Amino acid sequence: MTELDSPKPETPEASDEAEAPELIEPYNSVRRSSLSFRDLFTETTISLTARPARTLLTALGTILGVAALVATLGLAGTAGNQILTRFDELVATQVTVEPESGFFSGPNSRTISVIPFDADDRLQRLNGVVSAGTISDVDVGGALASSVPVDDPLGQNEVQVPVVATSAGLFAAARAQVLTGRTFDVGHDQRADPVAVLGPGAARRLNVTQTANAPAIFVGDQPLVIVGILADVRRKPELLNAIIIPNGIARDRFGLSAPSEVLIETEVGAAELIEAQAPTALYPNAPDRLDADAPPTPTRARNSVQTDVNSLFLVLGAISLVVGAIGIANVTLVSVLERTGEIGLRRALGGTRRHIALQFLTESAALGTIAGILGTSLGILTVVIVSATREWTPVLNPGLPLVAPFLGSLIGLVAGTYPAWKAANLEPIAALRGAE
Amino acid sequence: MSLSAPSAHPVVHLEGVGRVFDSTPPVEALKATDLVIYPGEYVAIVGPSGSGKSTLLHLLGLLDSPTSGTYWLDGIDTSTLSEPERAGLRGSKVGFVFQSFHLLAHRTTVENVALAELYSSQSRSDRTERATAALERVGLGHRLDAFPTTLSGGERQRVAVARALVASPSLVLADEPTGNLDSMTTDAVLSMFADLHASGITLAVITHDAEVAERAQRQISIRDGVVTSL
Asked: Among A170, A381, B52, B124, which residue's Cβ finds the most Cβ atoms within 10 Å?
């Protein structure tokens, strides 16, 4: 049995023997008061189990606090992983290049674009590029679009539809899906053929539903043959409502001087590399006049997601832990007041102030540990249930369930300090007389 | 070991013991007192409230230290002891019986009695045995597993006496032991004290009740911090 206070060996004290030489040996020895770990454990168990409902209620704040922390950390890890897989699909493989802003040729001029019209070819040579295409808004001078060449005075058949000029490669880079017909190709572009592809919104507004008989539309007085209608795009949603024409005809008839943006789809993991290489490939003379933009890398995405979620909920968890600690401190303090009689009795039976303090500290620490274990279980259960309902894979740091219960112990210990000190400093006789 | 003869070594030996409380102005609760109690004596300490009875009880029970004088308990000079030693001596040499019993409600009588040896280094296995023996000694051998709430006042006080006896103390200190009891049970408890006295236990009963005091072998009066033998 381990002793907290090792008993003093039974040595008769010399001074006493001088005073009382005739005294019988066993009466003249002083044993130090002591309390074994096992006894302390038994006492704590009895105290905590005497009123189980009260014990549980006392621990409730800490249970919820630990549960909130564990659930927060678990859910942040779990959610971070889910968001990451969604990012992989589109954003993580996308690079855009735009002219560096800040270059003005004059007060009425836009940023001068140095993006070449053969951007597709230049970029396709880079290792890691899946597809690339240019995209530019076309200034049609306010011209309206219509699907019939004659004015019908009874019906409004001229509508304002944005016109966008692209290279042939953009459809792949934007992951466009064709509803009917086809997209235009490099040949259309080079010959400056008057063709167009309609986004689904534009097709609806222009009443074009099929391409079998090569319908034509007019933008101002420029006829365009519709070769295809898109069903959807995964990038560049502005294409959905636009009339999309090749760069060739845009240069020829609408005065497009240079593409205003390049959209690149990369291999997974190549985005950062392409981000660095694309400006040089596009404009070797002065690559810094182009501004390439890649999404944050997957790890960065995950970290920022976790940081955002964590910092919010960790604060909430910490607050509930503080509330839990106050709860334990409060009830322990009340129980010190209730148990003054018991404290006085224990002192009279040979307990020291230290023993009393130790007993109350052990009780609150044990309570905190129990709360920590229950809270951790509750938190993990929450993570699993939420993951199950969202069809996520629960992700949990394996160290968390091992560390979290000790957080409870620590809270119990801290919360029990003041009540234990208070209990240890009660005057025994006052305590014995005051109770009941 | 019925040593009632004054020739034996005293259990309690106070020499010039006084207690002054540090307040403004300082309160001299107990003036310099000489007191000797021999083994096997049955002493009653009588006095009205505020007379210094509690202070004397604190000092005799090692719950407080005198500010002057020397107190030998069982021949041991208590002024030289450390706090754990004083507590150990208190647990092993002094048995307390309180006015309000102070039994723990959630423990059986035998557990309550065994609690007396919690802070001693006595082996755990024998504690229940000794507690049972002590309860049998006060006539409660049939109620070992009862909870205090199911006991009568007299029975509770007998459990408290058993708890005071279990560590075989040199001195049993009773603080108003009959204050919470009716006259019938008071009588029973006092008879029990007489039996204990007959079996050689050294008893000091602190009371304001003259009737209780009369049952003792010797009476000591305390008034305004001054102790006088009657």
From this structure: A170
Shared domain for A261 and A332, answered yes or no, is no
User: What distance in Å separates the CA atoms of residue A113 and residue A130, rounded to the nearest whole number?
Assistant: 24
Residue ranges of the alpha helices (H) in A174-297? 186-191, 200-205, 247-254, 271-282
* Residue B3 contacts A where some CB pair is shorter than 8 Å: no
**A151: DSSP letter:** -
**Which is nearest to B58 in space by CA: B77, B25, B24, B30?**
B30
Task: Report whether B19 contacts B59 (CB < 8 A).
Answer: yes
ipTM: 0.89
| pLDDT-based confidence at residue A434 (cuts at 50, 70, 90) | low
Tally Cβ neighbours within 10 Å of residue B79: 13
Tens-digit pLDDT profile for residues A90-140: 777 889 998 876 555 444 555 567 889 999 999 999 999 999 999 998 988
> Taking CB atoms and an 8 Å cut-off, how many pairs form between chains A and B?
139
Residue B49 makes CB contacts below 8 A (sequence gap 6+) with B208
Q: What integer is the mean pLDDT of B155-164?
A: 91
User: DSSP letter string over B126-179?
Assistant: HHHHHHHHHHHHTT-TT-TT--GGGS-HHHHHHHHHHHHHTT--SEEEEESTTT
> Do residues B193 and B205 touch, judged by C-beta distance below 8 A?
yes
In total, how many domains does chain A have?
Answer: 2
Q: Does B74 touch chain A (CB under 8 A)?
A: yes
pLDDT computed for residue A29 by the predictor: 60
Query: How distant is the Cα of B143 from the closest Cα of chain A, in angstroms?
Result: 20
Show the domain range for A391: 36-85+300-434
Closest residue in B to A27 (Cα) is B74
Same domain, A277 and A168: yes
- Is A227 within a domain? yes
CB atoms within 10 A of CB A201: 17
DSSP string, B29-84: EEEEEEEEE-TT-EEEEE--TTSSHHHHHHHHTTSS--SEEEEEETTEEGGG--HH
- pLDDT of A284-316, one tens digit each? 988 888 888 887 665 555 565 566 666 777 787
Of B54, B106, B163, the CB nearest to A50: B106
Nearest residue in chain A measured CA to CA from B83? A352
pLDDT of A369 over the 90 cut = yes
CB distance from A346 to chain B under 8 Å?
yes
The pLDDT, as a whole number, for residue A134 is 93
Tell me: do A47 and A161 sit in the same domain: no
In a domain, A325, yes or no: yes
Q: Do B63 and A429 touch (CB under 8 A)?
A: yes
**% residues pLDDT > 70 (chain A):** 82
In a domain, A97, yes or no: no
Tokens of residue B106, six digits:
């959630």
Answer whether B6 touches A (CB < 8 Å).
no
Give the start-to-end residue ranges of the domains of chain B: 41-63+90-229
The answer on A253 and A129 residing in a single domain is: yes
Domain boundary among A252, A282, A312: A282
CATH number 3.90.650.10 given to B41-63+90-229: no
Same domain, A258 and A327: no
Q: Which among A23, A347, A436 is the nearest to B63, CB-wise? A: A347
- Taking residue B219's Cβ as centre, other Cβ atoms within 10 Å add up to 18
- Residue pair A123/A264 in contact by the 8 Å Cβ criterion: yes
Residue A178 lies in a domain: yes
Of A7, A16, A341, the CB nearest to B76: A16
| pLDDT band at B187; cut points 50, 70, 90 | confident
